[in-house]
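Need Methionine ABC transporter permease's 3D structure for a figure. Predict it.
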Amino acid sequence: MQVDLHTFWPKILEATNETLLMVGIALVFASLIGLPLGVALVVTRPNGLLQNGPLFKVLNAIVNFFRSIPFIILLVAILPITRLIVGTSIGTAAAVVPLVLFSGPFIARLVESSLLEVEPGVVEATEAMGATSWQIVFRVLIPEALSSLVLNITIAAIGLVGASAMAGFVGGGGLGDLAIAYGYQRFETEVMIITVLLLVVIVQVIQTVGNQLSRKIRRH
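Structure prediction for Methionine ABC transporter permease:
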């Protein structure tokens, strides 16, 4: 049975809003995990500001563990945890939990990469002036790496868009769910094309905004 796109548009708009909501909420919570975790990886590493070998190894192992699990497997594996946290294992709210666990460690690595790009000479000069380790982190490392951090958070946001589409396999809602329910299972090619185009548009908008914001920070 052919879908009437004129009456189907409200569902497409609703699915788009669900995708944006999933990505937005997941990005906020994943950043709250990834940012401090990334900072911790930098400051506790060998020759770091707060060098702590055992702690670095533990944090490094945790990040590597979660990053090694494909999202679709993580999505299914933590269904009991998802149900415990949000009370259900399907829908937009349920999809946020695996999205956060998937993106948090990824953001931590991106933050680590950005902070390690800061010139050691700048850090050493600030340290010579008597600044504490945390003053160096918040007044030197993060401000100096801010442009790179914005670009990397943009990469994480785009990754979340793709992951949110995969959440449709377990009824996670959003454009991915719509594409699978109608475009794949019911062979509605028009729905599949529209959902793909909308995902492309969302990615392009996120990348454009991230690039412009990073460029503006760099100029300052």
